């Protein structure tokens, strides 16, 4: 009986030992599975974190690129606008300078034409040319006598041309001392009208016989002088062809002398025969 009890106790111990081993094995396997699941979860978490990080980094890059492009676009737009503004400003300045220069040029021309002119108006009575010499013969002759103290008939051809240039300059710049040198006929007509009006006024208001007499004498003298001048001018107009012929003869004589000096005697004789056909 004691032997049977020992056997039962030993079997019981073996069963307990087996249960322990089984329990230990299960716990070990459970720990391994738990460890494997943890590693898998950790790996999945790492992959997810890495993917999320990459996605976030890509978004940041896009945002940065968009900002950079936007900033660059704004800068280019601003530079373009500034360039356009400077260009418009430059054009405006150029137009202003051109207008100013044009205005200055007009003023310069105006000052040039009116320099030394009593009326400050160039060409007030018209503009003469050298070809107008015969048309203004009477006025030119009167100007020569009264202003230059010269007689037209005593002048040579080149002297007459030079003096007419002086007359023409004073005419064009309106600087004559009297209006009679512009248009003698118009001046005389106005003078006659003035004298008539003055005479009528004198008859009504002037009771001083001595003063009236002196004025009448002065008027008569002035009238006589004007008539003499007009007579001389009429005579000059009538003798214009004669004067022209005389000048032509003088030119021929001068040419004949030149030909003789050059030794062209035959040509000189022919011209001399034209000059003096009766000989």
UniProtKB/TrEMBL annotation:
<feature type="region of interest" description="Disordered">
    <location>
        <begin position="1"/>
        <end position="111"/>
    </location>
</feature>
<feature type="compositionally biased region" description="Basic and acidic residues">
    <location>
        <begin position="15"/>
        <end position="24"/>
    </location>
</feature>
<feature type="compositionally biased region" description="Low complexity">
    <location>
        <begin position="37"/>
        <end position="56"/>
    </location>
</feature>
<protein>
    <submittedName>
        <fullName>U4 tri-snrnp-associated</fullName>
    </submittedName>
</protein>
<keyword id="KW-0175">Coiled coil</keyword>
<feature type="compositionally biased region" description="Basic residues">
    <location>
        <begin position="64"/>
        <end position="95"/>
    </location>
</feature>
<feature type="coiled-coil region">
    <location>
        <begin position="190"/>
        <end position="246"/>
    </location>
</feature>
């Amino acid at each position: 009986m004691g032997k049977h009890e020992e056997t039962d106790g030993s079997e019981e111990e073996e069963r307990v030992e087996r249960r322990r081993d089984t329990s230990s094995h299960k716990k070990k396997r459970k720990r391994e599975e738990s460890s494997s699941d943890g590693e898998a979860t950790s790996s999945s978490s790492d992959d997810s974190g890495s993917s999320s990080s990459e996605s976030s980094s890509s978004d940041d890059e896009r945002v940065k690129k968009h900002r950079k492009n936007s900033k660059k676009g704004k800068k280019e737009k601003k530079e373009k606008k500034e360039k356009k503004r400077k260009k418009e400003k430059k054009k405006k300045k150029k137009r202003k300078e051109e207008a100013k220069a044009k205005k200055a040029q007009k003023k310069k021309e105006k000052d040039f034409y009116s320099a030394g002119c009593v009326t400050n108006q160039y060409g007030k009575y018209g503009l003469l040319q050298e070809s107008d010499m015969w048309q203004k013969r009477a006025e030119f002759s009167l100007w020569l006598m009264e202003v230059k103290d010269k007689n037209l008939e005593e002048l040579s051809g080149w002297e007459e041309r030079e003096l007419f240039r002086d007359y023409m300059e004073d005419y064009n710049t309106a600087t004559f001392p009297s209006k009679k040198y512009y248009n003698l006929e118009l001046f005389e007509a106005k003078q006659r009208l003035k004298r008539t009006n003055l005479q009528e006024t004198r008859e009504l208001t002037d009771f001083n016989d001595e003063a009236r007499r002196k004025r009448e004498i002065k008027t008569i003298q002035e009238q006589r002088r004007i008539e003499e001048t007009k007579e001389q001018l009429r005579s000059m107009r009538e003798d214009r062809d004669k004067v022209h012929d005389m000048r032509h003869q003088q030119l021929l004589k001068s040419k004949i002398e030149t030909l003789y000096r050059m030794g062209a005697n035959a040509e000189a004789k022919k011209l001399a025969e034209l000059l003096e056909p009766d000989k």
